[in-house]
Structures are given as C-alpha cells and as structure tokens.
Amino acid sequence: MTQPGMTQPGMPQPGPSVRPTGPTALLIAGVVGAGFSWIAQSTAENFGWPTPPVPPLTAVVVAVLALASWLAARWMHRAVQVRHQVVEPARAIALLLAGKAALLGGTMLAAGYAVVALRHLPEMDAALPRERVLSAAAAAVLSVALAFAGRALERACQVPGPPDEESGDAPGVDDGGAAGPG
Fold this sequence. Notes:
By secondary structure, the protein is mostly helical. The chain has helices spanning 23-46, 56-82, 89-120, 127-156. The two termini are 36 Å apart.
C-alpha cells in the first residue's frame, strides 16, 4: 500500500501543473485580435466615423513591454536554469503569468494591428492612411517581439527536472550517442 502523495512503481509521475501556452491558445488569441480590429474598423466605417490613427506612442509602449519581458526572461533563465537558484514562489508565479500575458497579448495585438495596416494599405497614396499603415505595421512588428519575449519568459520559468539516474542528464536530453549496447 502506498502513502498519500506517493506513486506506485511503474505509474507515470504527475507532470507540471502549468503547461506552456499551446498553439491553439495562440491561434484563438490571433483570431480574437484580428476579429476585434476588423469589427471595430467596419463599425466605424458603417457609421461614417473616421478610423483613428494608431498613435506612434503605441509602438513605444509595446517596445518597452517587450524589453521588460525579455529582461525578465534573461534574469529568470540565469536564476533557474543556469544557477539553479530557488526563486520565491510568488515571484515565479508572477513572472510566469507575465510571460503568458505577454505571449497572448502580443499575439492579439500583432493580429489586430496587422488588420489595421492591411485595411489601409490600398489607400497609401494619401498621407493619413500612409501614417496608419506605417504606425500599425510598426506596432504589429513590435507586438510580435512582445510575443516572442513572453514565450522566452514562459520557458525560463520552467523548473528543470531531476537528472536521469542512469545518464545524469536532465530528462529528454539527447546525448547525441547511439542507442545503448545491444
């Protein structure tokens, strides 16, 4: 009989309680961002309202968020993966959530700003649509950077597993050698 919290031999060990953000969640975030942007612009056009330009400050704010996420990812990677330090649980959870938010938010923003840029692309001869396209494209590119920084932060928060008993390597690490003797 096993004690509570113990697993039986041959039974798989429980996996991590928080999984990395999957491609389905990213696809949904992109569709929501693009859809919201399309609906907002279509509604404005249907009512005869001008579509407001994307302020250049938007790209700056997204760039600052991307830089902050990337710096947090570097710090967390060094602490957890390189130095094997124990990080305060509340800080680790906050950084993990910030990474997920940056990844999903960056994906939504990139899709939304891409829709803005693409909708005004045919009108680039005029100054205001050109400004919309350029500022929305810059915001979209920086939003992609935010998503990548969020993914890096999310990965940096993963705690390395215990080393394999036989090889001394972390689980899943390929030593590049052939299969064992046999």
